[in-house]
Design brief:
heterodimer; A: mainly alpha; MetI-like fold; B: alpha+beta; Rossmann fold; OB fold (Dihydrolipoamide Acetyltransferase, E2P); 2 domains; six-stranded mixed beta sheet; 10 helices; 24% helix
Amino acid sequence: MRHAPVRPSPERAPRGVNGESPAVRFPDMKRMKRRTGTGRTERSYPPLMLAAAVSVSLIALIPLCFVVGYSASIGPTEAARLVFRPRTGELLWNTVRLAAGCVLLCAVIGVSAAWLVERSALPGLRVWNVLLVAPLAIPAFVNSFGWVSLMPGATGYGGALLIVTLSYFPLVYLPVAAALRGLDPALEESAHALGHSPWRTFLRVVLPQLRPALLGGSLLISLHLLAEFGALQMLRFPTFTTAIYDQYQSTFNGPAANMLAGVLVVLCLLLLLAELRLRGRARYARLGAGSARPSPRTRLGRGTAPVLLGLGVLIALALGVPLGSLGYWLTMGTSSAFPVGMLVTTTLTSVGLGAAGAILTTVIALPVAWLCVRRPGRLSVILERSTYFGNALPGIVVALALVTIAIRLTPALYQTTALLLTAYAILFLPRTMVNVRSALAQAPPVLEDVAHALGAGRSATFRRVTLRLIAPGLGAGTALVFIAIVTELTATLLLAPIGTHTLATQFWSHSDSIAYAASAPYAALMVLISAPATYLLTREARKGARA
Amino acid sequence: MTALTIIGVTKSFGTTSVLEGIDLHVPAGSLTAVLGPSGCGKTTLLRLIAGFADPDAGAIAIGDQTVFAPGRSVPPQRRRVGYVAQEGALFPHLSVAANITFGLSRSARRAGERVPELLDLVGLDRRLATRFPHELSGGQQQRVALARALAPGPSVVLLDEPFSSLDAGLREGTRRAVVQALREISATAVLVTHDQAEALSLADQVAVMRQGRLIQLDAPAKLYRYPCDTGVAGFVGESVLLPADLRDGEAECALGVLPLRDSDDAAEASAQPRRGAVLIRPEQIRLHPFADAAGVGAQVADVSFFGHDAAVRLDLLPDGPRVTARVLGQDLPVPGELVRLTVTGDVLAYPADRMLGTPAVTS
């Protein structure tokens, strides 16, 4: 009681109203568990979580280590000879201009579409929301199949830019729309009150809040493009990935391909650094009283018709053309020629692999995302970034890395489904990571404090509070990965155990030989399977907004 | 419920010292308000008690269980504290009933028996049980948060500025409901607030904090009558401080010769007269017609009318300091009017060393 000087007065009690003695005994010191404050002090890492996150990032780093190790093994002179060629410059220019153009277009389309669906009084909001996510159900290589098989001239930079933009803009639309839903309308109202016009409010208040979602989406698209193979191969637009594939496939030139992959890895590193610098330190969890109200919607007035027309054209190009083309080729082939048995088996295989891989990927994304959001620091950033490498490496490099390592170290794993699932997890971690991370960022930490105070331990708190709050984000992440796996081509081509055929591999083997009509049913099935997951994605997002 | 004892607790974040040796005893079944301006460390203190963070030194005991001593810390989920966060922090994915039963065992959760009882306790309609948090008003959310905190039968209830986000109309009713519920189950409670009226009206004892230190711990009436320095005097209520000559049992100041309240300082002054100041509360100053014989002349500067009463700021004649008087809302003077002032009751003496800032006048 050192620091409680109290003005003495005749009737005053010594301490406390009842004059109770402040003396306290410490009888149960021995029974107390020794703790050094792990977990609760906000700077420490819970050991189990850390161990899980470290294992996940180590697995995600396998392909990178393979590429680096390979490059090192061939020596610096040979490596330099393979890298510094005019061909590399050409591929670099192609890859960079495609990624830059696509990110820019997707950001504009994705943010505008998200604002229209979440904040404006657009007629048919629910339908648009579904339609704007639907292009995700059409793999980029099916999309380009649709365009090329109808318009063989849709090749080169223009064609490639158009087709990848139409395929990838939902990757910006989805997180931005989710962020807009989570945004406290009071922020916008405050800006209006401070004299900002709606447009200035959007630029100065809303857009900065959307930055994590927008950057996350853009990063995802860039990484996606660095790894895109099927679509660009079909459009004959050479980038690093197609060149690497050609090297492997046609000449089995391992060193050359690996060095190109090395350049790709450098590009990926640059992207990661850029995002890290741009993201800043701001917190994006909502601050303020109670639960967020839904936002008022802006009336479009005279703008309604042009806006509807614009969205209509977008959807026609992104969905209409590829679906129309598929329909055309389906009717061209005679239905009696459909190999029904084969179609059923490949479908079941694809769905099973997709479900298992998606759940695995989301589960292992959790510890890394949790550390990144709740214990931000150098270590958690490094762990999170390391999971991004998978997406920047072409599926074929991931596959070959796993094949090589499995043959050398764990032959029992070679030609197993487990190895294929590992490849999927490495490839698609970044996709689910973005969703899991932003979901966690929007779940207020005070709720976890409250749960602890109510007697819930760390795992119970996670199960009963955090998990429920981030469920929409997890659902979205899982659905994204499911779609990605069902439509994954290159890694599956190499890693699928003998006799395991998926829709994508069957489609590719037919379309490779320009058997458009024969490949169409497999493409259609891929779209059909992806469609419900895509629809669920939009519904989950809605539910998340309501809860 | 049980008592809460905090001994010598310190905490710093990096190089910033937030708490510097806090000692506090909260008797069983009583409500202690921790009162202080924002940034004084009061919320940190609450988080240390709850176990969300650990002190750098000191000890915390709840009843006879030590929950923190250096190197040993009971995690929050085993401290049996009820925690009501600033804005309720209800789980948005759970209904009111599920929020309330969150801290109960699985079987009790399923039965949900205690929900109506707890809703009654905090004065909420039982039909709200199926609602979701976003369908409740701020005041209702706070009451549900309290019901949730009370459901597992905590040893101590911690309330972190629970009323600050409510508007005035809701605030009074919510305060009353919350305190009534706490009293009904004789809860040991710590309420953190920056609102002196809230602290004085709700608590059994008030702990005043300033810059990471606990500077006074007293029952509300005592705190108001005997603030330990002029800073606390101004923080727990409006104060008029006038320079004065302190002597045997009385003080001579601009408002005349006034009787001194019994205190150590008064005793020392009677032994040896000295310069200092006196604390007069505005409600002690009475206004009289200027024509009256008694009292000190003053001119009305302005009047703030609150309905039930009014604050009148006056300049003592001829050019004396400005003082504030609190008068009932009828027969108010108008600015410029001349009046006479008298002081009822005794005043508190401050020797020069217990004055913070200017000893002249605050109002």
